[in-house]
Specification:
Blueprint (H helix, E strand, L loop, with lengths): L5 E6 L8 E5 L13 H5 L9 H10 L6 E5 L9 H10 L3 E6 L4 H9 L5 E5 L7 H5 L5 H12 L4 E8 L6 H11 L5 E5 L18 H11 L5 E3 L1
Parallel strand pairs: 2-3, 3-4, 4-5, 5-6, 6-7, 7-8
Antiparallel strand pairs: 1-2
The structure holds iron/sulfur cluster.
The site of iron/sulfur cluster has 11 residues, from loops.
C-alpha cells in the first residue's frame, strides 16, 4: 500500500484537458529552496494518512465526473508501491498523470512500458550547471538526463516544466535548458509565487514578473513548444 498524505477531490487545472482528483505522496529526495510543500517534504509524519481504499472508493463513486488521477508529491517515484497503486487506478478505469522530478528514470520507463501512466509532467529545475543549487542537494545530472530521454522517446503525452525562480533561470540559462529539451513535446514556464517554502526567506522574494516569463518563452520556443502557465 502506498503512503498517501493528501487528497484533493477535484482539479480542473492539474491534468491538461481532464477533470481529475489529486493524490499527494510524501517525501522527496530534493530540497528545492522554493518548494511550496515543505510539510509534505520535511514533516509528513505529522500529516494524517489517507488509505488507498478511501481514494479508490471515492473515485468509484465519482466515475461519471472524474476522468483521471494526478499523482504528485513530494516525489512519488520514491514509493516502491507506486506502480501497484497506479495499476489499481488504471484497472478502475481512470487515466493517470504523474508529476516527477525525474530522479527515477528506471521506474518511469517501466510505468510507461506497462501502460500505467497516461501523462507525465517532469520538472526541469534549472540548466544542468545550476541543478545542485536549484534542487538544494547534490544531483547526479545523468539521471535527470536519462529521464528526459525516456520521455522524449516515449509515445505518451508529457510536458517539461520549470518554476522560474529569480536568479536561477536567466536568459542564458533558458537557452541552455531549451537546447537540452530540443525534440521534446511541450515546455511550460511557471512563475515563482511567494508563500510558504522550504527556505523560509523565500517568502520575501517577489513573484516572477510576467514580462520576464514572456521574454524567456521567446528564447525557448525556438527549440521547443513553450508557453507560460
Ligand atoms: S519542489 Fe523540489 S523539494 Fe518540493 S516536492 Fe518538488 S522536487 Fe521535491
Amino acid at each position: 500500500m502506498v503512503l498517501i498524505k493528501g487528497f484533493e477531490k477535484t482539479t480542473l487545472i492539474d491534468f491538461p484537458g481532464k477533470i481529475a482528483a489529486t493524490v499527494f505522496l510524501p517525501g522527496c529526495n530534493f530540497r528545492c529552496p522554493y518548494c511550496h510543500n515543505p510539510e509534505l517534504v520535511l514533516d509528513f509524519k505529522k500529516l494524517k494518512s489517507i488509505s488507498e481504499t478511501f481514494v479508490l472508493d471515492y473515485l468509484e463513486q465519482r466515475k461519471k465526473w472524474v476522468d483521471g488521477v494526478c499523482i504528485t508529491g513530494g516525489e512519488p517515484t520514491l514509493h516502491s508501491d507506486l506502480p501497484k497503486f497506479m495499476k489499481k487506478i488504471k484497472d478502475a478505469g481512470f487515466l493517470v498523470k504523474l508529476d516527477t522530478n525525474g530522479t527515477n528514470p528506471d521506474m518511469l520507463e517501466k510505468l510507461i512500458a506497462k501502460n500505467l501512466v497516461d501523462y507525465v509532467a517532469m520538472d526541469i529545475k534549472a540548466p544542468k550547471y545550476k541543478y545542485n543549487d536549484a534542487a538544494g542537494v547534490a544531483v547526479d545530472i545523468s539521471i535527470i538526463e536519462k529521464s528526459v530521454n525516456v520521455l522524449k522517446k516515449s509515445s505518451i503525452d508529457y510536458e517539461f516544466r520549470t518554476t522560474v525562480f529569480p536568479g536561477m533561470v536567466d536568459e542564458k540559462d533558458m537557452l541552455s535548458i531549451a537546447k537540452w529539451l530540443l525534440g521534446g513535446n511541450a515546455y511550460f514556464l511557471q512563475a515563482f509565487k511567494p508563500s510558504k517554502h522550504i527556505d523560509a526567506n523565500m517568502k520575501e522574494i517577489p513573484m516572477t514578473d510576467k514580462d520576464e516569463l514572456e521574454k524567456l518563452v521567446k528564447i525557448a520556443e525556438k527549440y521547443i513548444d513553450c508557453e507560460v502557465r
